[in-house]
Each structure stands twice: as C-alpha cells, then as structure tokens.
Amino acid sequence: MKLFAVFLVLSMVVLMAEPADGFFGWLIRGAISGTLEIFGLLLQEQLEQLEQQQQLDKRSLDAFH
User: Fold this and answer.
1) Which residues have a Cβ under 8 Å from the Cβ of 14 and sit 6 or more positions away?
2) Which Pfam families does the UniProt entry name for this protein (predicted)?
3) Per the structure, how many domains does the chain have?
4) What percent of the chain is predicted at pLDDT more than 70?
C-alpha cells in the first residue's frame, strides 16, 4: 500500500512539474510523427512506381516510332 501511495505522489509531482512534456504528450507526438512518416514512405514508393511506369511507357512509344 505504501508503494502504491509513493507511486501516485511521484506521478502527480512529475505531471504537475512539466505537464506539456509528460508521457502522454510524448506518446501522442510519437504516434502522429510515426504515422506521418509511414504515409510519407508509402507516398514516395507510389511516386517512384509511377515514374518507372511512365519511363516504360515512353520507351515503348519510342520503340514504335
């Protein structure tokens, strides 16, 4: 029981001292940053595939002329 009370008191001290830099803010920022990074990588991969397809299309049209 004493350990639980110490944990609660220390948690309150940490959260009250720096509420903007608390664990939950860090966790949310990390989740948003990670999500944006994944979407960026997927978009970059799709753009590269589109460029490759355009190059292949151009080569095939040049071969017929």
Assistant:
1) 22
2) Antimicrobial12
3) 1
4) 89
41 neighbors 34 (Cβ within 8 angstroms): no
Tell me the HSE value of 65 on the side-chain side, using a 13 A CA sphere: 6
Q: Are 51 and 58 in contact (CB under 8 A)?
A: no
Neighbours of 22 (CB within 10 A): 15
- Residue 50 in tokens: 């589109």
Which domain, by its residues, includes 52? 1-64
Q: What's 26-60 look like in SS3?
A: HHHHHHHHHHHHHHHHHHHHHHHHHHHHHHHHHHH
Q: Rounded to two decimals, what is the model's pTM?
A: 0.48
Q: Strand, helix or coil at 22?
A: coil
Tokens of 39: 């979407």
